[in-house]
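User: These chains co-purify. Model them together.
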Amino acid sequence: AAGVIQSPRHLIKEKRETATLKCYPIPRHDTVYWYQQGPGQDPQFLISFYEKMQSDKGSIPDRFSAQQFSDYHSELNMSSLELGDSALYFCASSSTGREWDTEAFFGQGTRLTVV
Amino acid sequence: KNEVEQSPQNLTAQEGEFITINCSYSVGISALHWLQQHPGGGIVSLFMLSSGKKKHGRLIATINIQEKHSSLHITASHPRDSAVYICAVKGNQFYFGTGTSLTVIP
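Assistant: Joint model of the two components:
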């Protein structure tokens, strides 16, 4: 069965560089969530999109932006990278718009290392 | 305030032992997930539950919606089960437990 696909799986960037992370949801899923998990830390909610519109915003730095495209994939754009941005970034997708979700899945994540 | 509480935080078991990890939550949810994460690794989805019980191989997950509680059981544990197990619940966003670090000793 198709799962949530994230690319790249690993990324190494230098300070002040930019990075773009991609998340491809399960087919027919219309909602994407982004999370950041620092080393030894709990996942932190960054941002979510429903039907290509931002639906909720968490602790996403102003240096980051994200969007969801017409094919429902989402991209997280990160600029002026800092050492503290090194983390696992993972996304989850679900089918919303109903009272109860029938399924939601998590991507394996992109491990970003800023050097 | 943690929306999701897991116990125990750390667990060491001998190979072959039966293991239980518990998760309690305080928010209204549409689903609960059990996730597995190996050191330095990504997220692996084990189960998604909205009611009842699911079984996959040696893993069993149960949920009691009324009591807002779920358990993950591992039967005949194996060293390769050593990982962090995370409970996540889906409300308006996902809320994560702090994880249970499991070490299975041969």
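DSSP finds no helices and eleven strands in chain A.
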